[in-house]
């Protein structure tokens, strides 16, 4: 029997590989080799599953990264580098659910609310790192947005920007960081 976590991970896999329209009880059951009864044991229909899936996405693709980076500690630059490594390590090409979630958010208010929350959390974290590095207040939000837009944009173009090339772009952007953010 699959756990709730297994179902949610499979849901993210479906999103990343086939998009939101493919997300059905039948497909999930088929991919996991389980019955609908197993699905309904964990969730109250697709609406309940969707709500849990969105929470799971936010936790796995946002708060997990921030918590890991903060747990590791170090200078601002070291934490930004660690954040980039974590995000790039989880990139799965067509298996990445991020583009599918963004597309889904254009059509569904619950998904849009989750995407707005995720975007806000991510930008706020980058903004806090800029402050900690001693960056100018007036530059904090634009810098956080720039760093975030690089990542989101890199995943939205076809084909997505490869990890090594994305690292080069970030390295260029990091030249704007105050000296206090470079070493611990």
TrEMBL record:
Keywords of this entry: DNA-binding
Keyword DNA-binding recorded: yes
SUPFAM superfamilies xrefs: Homeodomain-like
DNA-binding region: 24-43
InterPro entries (UniProt xref): Homeodomain-like_sf, HTH_TetR
HTH tetR-type domain: residues covered: 1-61
Source domain of life: Bacteria
Stated name of the protein: AcrR family transcriptional regulator
Species this chain originates from: Streptosporangium brasiliense
Lineage: Bacteria, Bacillati, Actinomycetota, Actinomycetes, Streptosporangiales
